[in-house]
Specification:
The chain is α+β, with helices and mostly antiparallel strands. The chain is 37% helix and 33% strand. The chain contains 7 helices and 16 strands. A hairpin with a 2-residue loop joins strand 6 and strand 7. Helix 1 (3-28) crosses helix 3, helix 2 crosses helix 3 and helix 3 packs across helix 4 (80-108).
């Protein structure tokens, strides 16, 4: 979708919200507007900040139109036709204001919402409108919503490194599955697998919580802190600067292993390559390995296992089976 189409959709959505706000403002002036109506209005306002902004603008425009009528000191009561005219004046004034806000937002942030995805073995660097930077690892999908009012991204799967420009008034929030990571002035990385989330802080601090789920205490992370979260728990550990740097070796296209089991090393290589490594013997899966390897070079890794452990490597198409 083009930027122009995005802008047209944003303007159309603003018009729809504006129309609803006008209807609510007119309804609120009716004599039969009661507590049930007020509760319904409150619920609509709470649905989105855009609803609240549109309603306040319409209310202000409506009040200005009423004040204009009062200055003219009408000699007859304001009847239904007159009230409809006032409503139309308010609508016109409010719509102009809302469209002004949308135009400013689109100029400030050309893409309000966007989806980024990397293929297996690929990486991508993103610079957001607020100056923050995100680097995506292999096979990762990230959705962003960056506006003057909100900074929120969804890490649907994969891994990303965040270098966030801090703004206390507009926290940067990463949604990953059932968990939420809130930036408190931070460089951090997040890895989101199917049933597991890992968050580690390099600089600053961040908060990890279960997105409001009761019974799961939020964790505030400082440099070196690592959290591994599942649907029901959050486990916090401490890592050295070197350990965290090694975890980010993928940013230079490298994988760093320290006393890593062969099974875990194979699983890491499989994240970056369509050629997969299969451990054909459970006994060798527990062997440990050390070293730094290009993430896209399966051949060098399997050759090393032959040299160091005396393993047999059998090629089956895009699969390399390791065994005794």
């Amino acid at each position: 979708m083009s930027d122009n189409q995005d802008q047209q959709q944003s303007v159309s959505a603003a018009k729809d919200v504006r129309v609803q706000a006008s209807r609510w403002r007119e309804r609120r002036d009716r004599e039969d507007f009661g507590s049930a109506d007020q509760a319904e209005l409150d619920a609509w306002l709470a649905q989105s900040p855009d609803n609240m902004v549109a309603y306040l603008r319409v209310d202000d425009a409506w009040s200005r139109a009423d004040r204009l009528g009062a200055l003219r000191r009408p000699t007859r009561p304001v009847g239904p036709e007159r009230r409809v005219l006032i409503a139309r004046i308010a609508a016109a004034l409010g719509l102009a204001a809302v469209l002004g806000v949308v135009a400013y937002s689109e100029m400030d942030t050309p893409v309000r919402e966007h989806t980024y995805a990397t293929a297996i073995g690929s990486r991508e660097q993103i610079r957001l409108a607020d100056g923050s930077e995100i680097e995506l690892n292999t096979d990762t999908t990230l959705r962003t919503r960056i506006t003057p009012q909100e900074r929120r991204v969804w890490l649907d799967r994969g891994e990303a490194y965040f270098n966030i420009r801090h703004d206390a008034a507009h926290p940067f929030i990463v949604m990953a599955g059932t968990h939420r990571v809130t930036d408190l002035g931070t460089k951090f990385f997040v890895r989101h697998d199917t049933d597991r989330l890992e968050v580690a802080v390099m600089e600053g601090s961040a908060q990890v919580d279960a997105n409001g789920k009761p019974g799961v205490k939020p964790a505030v992370l400082l440099p070196g802190d690592v959290v591994v979260a599942t649907a029901n728990s959050i486990l916090e550990t401490k890592k050295s600067v070197q350990d965290l740097s090694d975890k980010l070796g993928w940013r230079q296209g490298m994988l760093v292993f320290h006393h890593t089991t062969l099974a875990d090393a194979a699983a890491e290589f499989n994240r970056y390559n369509r050629e997969k490594i299969v451990i054909g013997d459970t006994a060798i899966a527990r062997l440990t390995i050390n070293g730094t390897f290009p993430s896209r070079n399966v051949g060098d890794f399997t050759h090393l296992t032959q040299e160091v452990f005396g393993l047999h490597v059998e090629k089956q198409g895009d699969i390399a089976v390791l065994s005794r």
